[in-house]
């Protein structure tokens, strides 16, 4: 008999919730075949089978909270699922024919609960999702893939409006337990508001120079580096440049000490079906445009597929959040503690602006810098945002370190 226990979950993570069991007692399992998913407050962890055999017992059911090294299940090593357990033979009965609507499905497959919930939360018809699990079982990753590659929608006849329901409104409500990730997001954001003396300063940037430079070199950039040239590498470079001049924006408070960091681990906020995550690009200040774009693309894809590891979301020193991809025109981003600064990007809109005493149409973007006023003074915050604006409006300054 082999025990299956909760693996090490990562730094500062001591417990998890059993989200989904892919196998049931009596099922045969192979080495490294996924047994269950554990949901922590940061990532989802898959637990593989350490041996081949038969899953004999599940100790921690779905929804239970378990600690590190807690017993999850036990496996009978080397056994097969073909031999039924010994016991009295059932009394033979003549089967009663069933109506077509009562017939059992062709397989005994059952979709993973995490896949069912993810599909329901995002209005995905799980019946149209191809399952990769045993007997065609739809897994969470299958739903994520379907969301990233939506199928064309076939128009259907409109439904007749239903009559208003009478009675208590509770009959029309649905109560769903928050995921550990969502609970952590809620707790950390509120802690940030309660702890930091948070303030936001705003500016706007003319994106003409960056857009012209990108349009001129994007095909050559893609051909040489194998990755598209986007706007995020320009903003990352501009922020790294400004952080060198205003180091307190890249620092953090530890008790009565201020910890200044001589590196930039850039957090890039990314929205996923499960919630907001912030993968970290380490030593971003020493990376090229191509290296930054490759890192953003790779970590963004891993975030959407729920494949980020614990270490990939820890140790950030500054964060960039791009609400513009969702259409946000202006917002005040919330700090990602213990960091002291976060830059908010927004939609690019053509607006009338005055240039050399003439009214011209330019692609403009509002920028927002939220900062911890306990460590960053107003002068430093405004100067930081001005340096970012200057670098974006004249990208040559980045090459000349001006």
TrEMBL record:
Chain spans, region Disordered: 80-173
Catalytic activity from the UniProt record: N(6)-[(R)-dihydrolipoyl]-L-lysyl-[protein] + succinyl-CoA = N(6)-[(R)-S(8)-succinyldihydrolipoyl]-L-lysyl-[protein] + CoA
Record has Protease as a keyword: no
CDD domains: lipoyl_domain (cd06849)
All residue ranges annotated as the Peripheral subunit-binding (PSBD) domain in the record: 110-147
Pfam families: 2-oxoacid_dh, Biotin_lipoyl, E3_binding
Protein family (similarity comment): Belongs to the 2-oxoacid dehydrogenase family.
PANTHER family on file: DIHYDROLIPOYLLYSINE-RESIDUE SUCCINYLTRANSFERASE COMPONENT OF 2-OXOGLUTARATE DEHYDROGENASE COMPLEX, MITOCHONDRIAL (PTHR43416:SF5), DIHYDROLIPOYLLYSINE-RESIDUE SUCCINYLTRANSFERASE COMPONENT OF 2-OXOGLUTARATE DEHYDROGENASE COMPLEX, MITOCHONDRIAL-RELATED (PTHR43416)
Name of the protein this chain belongs to: Dihydrolipoyllysine-residue succinyltransferase component of 2-oxoglutarate dehydrogenase complex
């Amino acid at each position: 008999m082999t025990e299956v226990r909760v693996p090490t979950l990562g730094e500062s993570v001591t417990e998890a919730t059993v989200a989904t069991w892919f196998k049931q007692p009596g099922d045969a399992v192979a080495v490294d075949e996924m047994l269950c998913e554990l949901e922590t407050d940061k990532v989802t962890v898959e637990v593989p089978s350490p041996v081949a055999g038969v899953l004999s017992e599940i100790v921690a059911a779905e929804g239970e909270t378990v600690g590190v090294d807690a017993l999850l299940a036990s496996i009978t090593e080397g056994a097969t699922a073909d031999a039924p357990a010994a016991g009295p033979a059932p009394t033979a009965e003549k089967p009663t024919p069933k109506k077509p609507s009562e017939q059992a499905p062709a397989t005994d497959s059952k979709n993973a609960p995490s896949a069912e919930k993810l599909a329901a939360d995002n209005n995905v018809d799980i019946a149209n999702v191809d399952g990769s699990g045993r007997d065609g079982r739809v897994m969470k990753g299958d739903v994520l893939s379907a969301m990233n590659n939506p199928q064309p929608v076939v128009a259907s006849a409109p439904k007749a409006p239903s009559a208003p329901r009478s009675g208590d409104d509770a009959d029309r409500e649905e109560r769903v337990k928050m995921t550990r990730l969502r609970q952590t997001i809620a707790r950390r954001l509120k802690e940030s508001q309660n702890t930091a003396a948070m303030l936001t300063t705003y500016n706007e940037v003319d994106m003409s120079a960056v857009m012209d430079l990108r349009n001129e070199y994007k095909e050559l950039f893609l051909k040489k580096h194998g990755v598209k040239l986007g706007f995020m590498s320009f903003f990352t470079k501009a922020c790294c440049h400004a952080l060198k001049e205003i180091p307190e924006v890249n620092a953090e408070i530890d008790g009565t000490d201020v910890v200044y960091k001589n590196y930039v681990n850039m957090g890039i906020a990314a929205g996923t079906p499960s919630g907001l995550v912030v993968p970290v690009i380490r030593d971003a200040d020493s990376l090229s445009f191509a290296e930054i774009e490759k890192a953003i693309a790779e970590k963004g894809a891993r975030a959407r597929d729920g494949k980020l590891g614990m270490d990939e979301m820890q140790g950030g020193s500054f964060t960039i959040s791009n609400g513009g991809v969702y259409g946000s025109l202006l917002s005040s981003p919330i700090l990602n503690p213990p960091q002291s600064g976060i830059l908010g990007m927004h939609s690019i809109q053509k607006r009338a602006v005055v240039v050399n005493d003439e009214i011209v149409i330019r692609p403009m973007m509002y920028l927002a810098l939220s900062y911890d006023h306990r460590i960053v003074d107003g002068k430093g915050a405004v100067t930081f945002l001005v340096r970012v604006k200057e670098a974006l409006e004249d990208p040559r300054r980045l090459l000349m370190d001006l």
